[in-house]
Write a structure and sequence with these properties.
With 217 residues, this protein is α/β, with parallel strands linked by helices. It has one domain: Rossmann fold (3-Layer(aba) Sandwich). Strands 3-2-1-4-5-6 form a six-stranded parallel sheet. Strand 1, helix 4 and strand 2 form a beta-alpha-beta unit. The longest helix has 15 residues. The two termini are 26 Å apart.
């Protein structure tokens, strides 16, 4: 189990925290439906327009290099949204077999055409795959949207369906300022801790994969 930031090449932008904070109480229920409003509605409701722009390419390259991915291997993206990372993983590793799962019917209906047939609708705590089905299972900013018991089960499920590697990224904070900004910003997370709290959860469920934190600057 290694703490490693595999999204360190993801471009950062200044978040409009004050504007989001003012709308959080009325927008949280809307965002948690994970429909059009969350992906392509106003910024106060979620992404404010989740469109492909190539920013996941360097992340796909990081996963390729860190896990030495090769053609023929199988990768699962839990919480794949519109399949941007799936698309880019296929682009940087020839013949890689990439699959995705997401709770959002809207996201899957609007997924990138080349990966749409490899996506399934479902929840992270009930993965519809056999044991040891994948060489790498990834989940970025997804399992913290479940309550604690389901979040724990999602970690167990990721471990169950992976025969080699797992990587999870979840909301957390390293400073009190980041904690305060997170509380002002977040719309969908139901389970969140400082790093030590997450590590206790990992230990409790026997999660031995890699991990890192999404920080609200």
């Amino acid at each position: 189990m290694t703490e490693i930031n595999l999204l360190d090449r993801y471009p950062r932008s200044r978040r409009p925290i004050a504007a989001r904070e003012a709308s959080v109480p009325r927008e949280r229920d809307v965002a948690r439906r994970f429909g059009r409003e969350y992906f392509d509605g106003e910024r106060t409701q979620g992404y404010g327009g989740y469109r492909y722009d190539g920013r996941w390419v360097p992340i796909a390259e990081r996963f390729r290099d860190y896990y030495a991915l090769t053609g023929g291997q199988r990768v699962l993206d839990v919480g794949c949204a519109k399949g941007f990372l799936m698309h880019d993983l296929r682009g940087v590793v020839r013949d890689l077999r990439v699959f995705g799962l997401d709770v959002s019917a809207y996201a899957l209906e609007n997924a990138m055409v080349d990966v749409r047939g490899s996506c399934a609708r479902g929840t992270a705590d009930i993965l519809p795959y056999a044991d040891d089905s994948f060489d790498l299972v990834i989940s970025i900013n997804t399992i913290h949207n479940l309550d604690l018991d389901r979040c724990k089960q999602a970690l167990r499920e990721m471990s169950r369906v992976s025969r080699l590697h797992t990587y999870v990224q979840v909301d957390s904070w390293l400073t009190e300022e980041q904690h305060e900004n997170f509380e002002r910003w977040q719309l969908t997370a139901r389970t969140y801790f400082a790093p030590d709290g997450w590590r206790r959860v990992f230990d409790e469920v026997g999660y031995t994969g890699d991990y890192y934190w999404t920080l609200t600057e």
